[in-house]
Amino acid sequence: MPSAFVTNLNELADWMTGSFNSNAQSITNESYYDINLEMVQIWPTRDDAMWLYVEQAVSANLDKPYRQRVYKLEQMPQGTFTSTVYEIPNAKEYIGV
């Protein structure tokens, strides 16, 4: 893999991973909910793509996420990125991972 490919894909994954929430926005605008989004890298030894586990929940119910997915991030030859999103069988087993 060319190093520019890895650097750019790693940078994208770095931007996407972390803990995010809309608390401040929900306080200033009542049409927004207080939502938490967790994105963590999984399967770091795989070299076919960058893989992220994504969990989204209302902040008051973090133990009951309404969305859990796996994202496969890839850089295309022309320099663009693609994200393939997968649903998780037995998703409840992975809450809070």
From TrEMBL:
One Pfam family per UniProt: CpeT
Stated family: Belongs to the CpcT/CpeT biliprotein lyase family.
Superkingdom of origin: Bacteria
Coiled coil: none
Presence of the UniProt keyword Ribosomal protein in the record: no
InterPro entries: CpcT/CpeT, CpcT/CpeT_sf
Entry protein name: Uncharacterized protein
CDD domains the UniProt entry points to: CpcT
Keywords: Lyase
